[in-house]
Amino acid sequence: MTGQVAGPAPESAPESAPGPVPEPGTEPVADERQRHRRWRERPGSPGAGKRGGLGRRRRGLVLLVAGSVVLTGAGVTAAGFIKSPAQAAADTRPPPPSVLTATVQRKVLSETVITRGTVSAAQRVDVSGEGVGGREAGRSVVTKVAVAEGRPLRMGQLLVEVSGRPVFVLKGAIPSYRDLGTGSTGEDVAQLQRALADLGYASGSDRSGTFGTGTERAVSRFYEARGRAPVTGQTGQTGATEATGQGEQAGRGTATGANGGAADPVPHVTVPMAEFTYVRAEPAYAERVSARVGDEATGTLVSLAAGALVVDGAVGPEVKGLVKPGQSVSIASEASGAHATGTVESVADKPSVPAKDAARPGPDTYAVKIRPRGRLSTDLTGADVRLTITAASSGQAVLAVPVTAVSAGADGRTTVTVWRGQRERRVVVTTGMTADGYVQVAPEAGSALAVGDPVIVGVNERPAAEGERSTAEGERSTAGERSTAGERSAAGERSSVTGDGRS
């Protein structure tokens, strides 16, 4: 209709509540729930204010809990650093002392002296060329060497030749000290006769100790069997023989014939002392050969070693009184691993004289000779060995405790303290010999002490921490090694303290 003025647009009607829930199957349930939640959260909806207050309360509660946790952690941390004076004193107080114990053992106690020694032959003989060759030799020169170092020798064997004359080895205890010939008498003659007889050259009807025609023939046969000629000389009225050289007759003598007239001198075999070297026993071998063909025959040409091997050791004055002949000895070579046993043969009464070329005189030592049981290998000749001399022994297994476990009371009684179940029990004992840090004990009547019983040996006033214990044990180990090395001196050592039961 014309002329009508359009009025204001009508206000839009408020959004109405959601329509009725569709029937099942007409709309997805999830979409319906989302639309319903958006409607409730719109401003002005009936549940909008209630939901906003609940969210704020939840957020406040979470912040309160988090703050409490932080404050609690800070308090715990601070408590670890802040201590009261009483607590600090309690924490620094040392722990209570602990008891150190050792068990009672049954063992053989032995007191030993340890020293060093050198393996050598029972006898050593130096052979020189002095006097070999006699007046016939214008110059003393080595013309032959018949031995080698380390090789065994046979009795009657040629050693060396000097200016064409031989030097032999024979068995005997008396060194050559004079020329022998027809009419000579004495123990040295008897020794020559025995040595030749052992080789198959008997002296016939000659009396022992008298150099007669039988001995002369024996000497000649000995030389001839070795492609040599004996030295000959002449005999005067006194029976003395003057050597004149190899197989040659001497000049005119003064011997008298049967009719009282002068008679031509008769050559006789003589034995120059320089041509025979004696050794006391076999086996014998050339220990050192210095001679070389063409060299001047001066000084020692050959060194002989004879007899069974022995060990020469030494002990200091502090243990000399413990070492006696007949005691058992253990012999050990660290270099070869060889082991043997022996006995003390002799102990010197006077200290050994220091060597003249010694740079600094050491303490006095006393020579000790060890006789091995059985024969040592010749490979040990000259070896440095360890000697363990058993100076005393209990002989059989006995009850023993560490020396530190024994104490003496004011009443004079000797006791050990058994520690079992945190309780002490004192046992009165009688002590015996002491060795290797242990002492022999025997409980008196009415007292009981058995193998395995723990006995108190000390109190640890301040137990060390683990690191401190490791350090202390390392220092003790190092100190023990230094002590052991120091004990291995040529003067010997005593490995334990002498007790009342010393044998």
Folded structure, characterized:
- This protein starts with 28 loop residues before the first helix and ends in a 9-residue tail after the last strand.
- It is elongated and about 165 Å long.
- It has seven helices and 24 strands.
- The strands form five sheets. The protein has a six-stranded antiparallel sheet, with no helix packed on it.
- The longest helix has 34 residues, at 48-81.
- Residues 1-7, 9-17, 236-259 and 464-503 have low confidence and may be disordered.
- It is of the alpha+beta class and 503 residues long.
Poorly predicted segments: 1-7, 9-17, 236-259, 464-503
Give the % helix.
10-25%
Strand order of the largest sheet: 2-18-22-21-20-19
Specify the biggest β-sheet: 6 strands, antiparallel
Gyration radius, rounded:
54 Å
Instruction: Kindly report the average pLDDT value.
Output: 78
Estimated structural class:
alpha+beta
Beta-strand segment tally: 24
Shape: elongated
The tally of helices reads 7
Strand fraction equals: 25-35%
End-to-end gap:
157 Å
Any descriptors?
503 residues; alpha+beta; six-stranded antiparallel barrel; 7 helices; 21% helix; 32% strand; disordered N terminus
Care to give the gist of this entry?
The protein is of the alpha+beta class and 503 residues long. It is built from seven helices and 24 strands.
Topology:
Blueprint lengths: L28 H13 L6 H34 L3 H8 L5 E6 L1 E3 L2 E19 L13 E4 L12 E5 L2 E7 L8 E2 L5 H12 L14 H13 L5 E5 L5 E6 L20 E5 L4 E4 L4 E6 L10 E16 L1 H4 L7 E5 L6 E9 L18 E7 L11 E10 L4 E5 L4 E2 L5 E7 L2 E13 L2 E6 L10 E7 L5 H22 L5 E2 L9
Parallel strand pairs: 6-11
Antiparallel strand pairs: 1-23, 2-18, 3-13, 3-17, 3-24, 4-5, 5-6, 7-10, 8-9, 8-10, 12-13, 13-16, 14-15, 14-17, 15-16, 18-22, 19-20, 20-21, 21-22
